[in-house]
Amino acid sequence: MITVAPDTRLGVVADLFRRHMFKTLPVVDGHGVVRGIITQNDLIQRARLDSVGYGGGFAASLTRLACPGRDRRLRARDIMTPDLPTVGPADGIGVLVRLLADGGLQAAPVEGPRLVGIVTRSDLIAVLARQTLLAGALQKAA
What is the pTM of this model? Predict the structure, then answer.
């Protein structure tokens, strides 16, 4: 599982998104406890705000945030969503549906008590699709 610490530079975060094609990254402390989550959209929104505040346009702001070593001031803790709900390894799919569909989250960290995984909306949709296909196949066979 790839995670970042709260003090990780945003350039490193952006590089992880690029390299691994992630849409979300959990932010954990030194004990593996979830402190927040960062999405690609968090980076984009921060660049948008910076482009208004500092001038130079959106592209320049995004480059400043995303290039490791260019802006060392901003860290993961500066843009992460803190205090988000987590799920446990034994929680059912209903808990995930409530958080990811109704709760507006992009991903749900799985803790027990340390981070053991992350479930994204895409993961949830894939499971629901498989269940629907399996139920349809079982009905046809009966």
Answer: 0.77
For residue 46, what are the contacts with CB-CB under 8 A and spacing of at least 6?
10, 65, 74, 78, 79
Residues 6+ apart with CB under 8 A from 29: 5, 6, 35
- In which order are the strands placed within the sheet that holds 34-39? 24-28, 34-39, 81-82
Task: Give me 32's structure tokens.
Answer: 């593996």
Among 89, 57, 70, residue whose Cα is nearest residue 11: 70
Q: What residue has token string 């034994």?
A: 90
What confidence tens digit (pLDDT) does each residue in 51-70 have? 666 666 666 666 666 665 55
- Give backbone dihedrals phi and psi of 42, rounded to 5 degrees, phi first: -60, -40
For the chain, list the domains and their CATH numbers. 1-84 (3.10.580.10), 85-142 (3.10.580.10)
Spacing of C-alpha 2 from chain mean position:
11
Beta-bridge partner residues of 37: 26, 81
d(CA 109, CA 21): 18
